[in-house]
Amino acid sequence: MIDLHIHTNHSDGSDDVISILKKAEAKKLKVISITDHDTCSAYQELEQLNVREFFNGNIIIGVELKTHINGYKIELLGLNVDYKYINNEVNKYYLPQKEKRKIEKERLLKICNDLGVKLDTVFNDEYNPYEEYAGSYIYKHIIKHEENKRFFKNRQFPECFYNFYREHLSNPDSVFYVDLLDIIPDINTIIKLIKESGGLVFIPHPFIYKENSMNILKSLINNYKIDGIECYYHNHTDEEIAFLVNLCQKNNLLVSGGSDYHGISRPNVKLGVIQKNKSIPFEIIQNWYDKNKILFPK
Out of 62, 100, 148, 186, which residue is the most buried by the measure of CB atoms under 10 Å away? Predict the structure, then answer.
């Protein structure tokens, strides 16, 4: 069993590195990858640990990097990367977290003000960009007021911030779309970064972009040097997994799988588990895992 898409508190996950290792060991996972957003800093911590105290499997070095394609904010997974190279390079392309979140807050607040969204007059002073995404903070205040339902389909609030982020903040067709493309590196830059670090480029969670998913997927496969697809994902149906695996076979792409575990912020997502409580089989990566040995522990 494997899980090649995991977040820690080095980005937006709640669990520290040791907790992830212990949970992976308890689940008897054979291979994992910590894929924090826009950083490989978790691997600096791992270098200081005796990994075998906590986890007997192997760790493929990974990262999830924000980018954009055709006006849509997306992510790409880099697997088997050189974490020192990634950490040295990402500061060239991404603003510090605090700075980026302040920009996001200002732009989303302007959208809300222009739309006439009702917000508490004093909430603005409470925001701490070190602790929370600006979108998450403002989302919690939007849904405090029933009258704001009029801005959403069927007059229903998105059920969680994750849905608000995917369906609105990142969707150019939404009135809440926050354009951050000027501060996010373009897709050619990110693919080049992953390749130069010795990594493989995977498309994660292909269906989270809703009605835009197929266009994004086709554009990535047809126009860019993609190595593989995350076919096994926490909410993929059996039919979606089969479709993606077949797509990989037709296009000579590698197969991967991961839960996208974040901890308490997504309590329904379990480490090493996909829909219907199924595990992700090691066999799906065996054809490329054996050829790529930048692994912890060394």
Answer: 62
Exposed/middle/buried for residue 174 (C-beta within 10 Å: 0-12, 13-18, 19+): middle
| Two tokens, residue 219 | 């554009």
pLDDT per residue over 158-202, tens digit each? 988 888 988 899 888 899 999 999 999 999 999 999 999 999 999
Dist CA 30 CA 234 (whole Å): 18
In the chain, the domains with their CATH numbers are: 2-94+186-296 (3.20.20.140), 97-181 (no CATH)
By three-state DSSP, how is residue 202 classified? strand
Structure-token pair, residue 132? 């929370």
Nearest alpha carbon to residue 77 among 131, 150, 4: 4
- For residues 206 and 228, the answer to whether their CB atoms sit within 8 Å is no
Spans in the chain with pLDDT lower than 70: 121-125, 130, 291-298
Quote the CA–CA distance of 168 and 175 in Å, as a whole number: 7
- Say if pTM beats, i.e. exceeds, 0.85: yes
Single-letter residue type at 52? R
Determine the Cα–Cα distance for residues 90 and 38; give it in Å rounded to an integer.
7
Alpha carbons 36 and 11: distance in angstroms, whole number? 5
* Beta carbons within 10 angstroms of residue 233's beta carbon: 25
The single-letter DSSP state of residue 14 is: S
